[in-house]
Amino acid sequence: MSALPALVDVRCRRCGSCARFTVATETVDCSACVARYRHPLDWPADAFYQTDSSVGLIWTYNRDHALRLRVYIASTARSQVVVDDVFARYLRQLSPACKQAKRRDEVCKRLDRLLRS
């Protein structure tokens, strides 16, 4: 597993809602059902924001990253999209096919559905 941000979004094992996983303490906090428990993270399988596509599994660390990925994929001028170190590492982990212009529409539609969920 590569370096993760300090906080990532996972699916709560009790209620299925989006919950926050704190990497330093390996703790899940769910605001929906108020659950709090330790969890051995299996990344990216535990990612709340994930979807299958023809280019493979697309996952993001959290909602902010899903939104940023949507902007990045949709952009025809990617050099102008602001990318910090964490997001740059994340982009390197994505399948190269996911970033191809010919896949732009499919990937954006998948991300749109994911963000609506």
Describe what this molecule looks like in 3D.
- This protein is of the alpha+beta class and 117 residues long.
- It folds into two domains: 1-48, no CATH class; 50-116, no CATH class.
- It is built from three helices and six strands; from the N terminus they run E-E-E-E-E-E-H-H-H.
- Strands 1-2-3-4 form a four-stranded antiparallel beta sheet, with no helix packed on it. A two-stranded antiparallel sheet has the order 5-6.
- A hairpin with a 4-residue loop joins strand 2 and strand 3 (27-29).
- Helix 1 runs antiparallel to helix 3 (104-116).
- It is globular, with a radius of gyration of 15 Å.
List the main descriptive attributes of the protein structure presented here.
3 helices, 117 residues, 2 domains
List the helices and strands and how they pair.
Elements: E1 7-11, E2 18-22, E3 27-29, E4 36-38, E5 50-53, E6 56-59, H1 63-74, H2 85-93, H3 104-116
Antiparallel strand pairs: 1-2, 2-3, 3-4, 5-6
Helix pairs in contact: 1-3
The chain-level structural class is: alpha+beta
User: How many DSSP helices?
Assistant: 3
> Into how many domains do the coordinates divide?
2
How many individual β-strands?
Answer: 6
How would you classify the quaternary structure? single chain
**How far is the N terminus from the C terminus?**
26 Å
What shape does the CA trace take? globular
Strand content: 15-25%
Summed over residues and divided by their number, the pLDDT gives a mean of 91
Q: What is the share of helical residues?
A: 25-40%
Placed side by side, the strands forming the largest sheet appear as 1-2-3-4
Largest sheet: 4 strands, antiparallel
Radius of gyration: 15 Å
- Unreliable spans: none
Element order: H for helix, E for strand: EEEEEEHHH
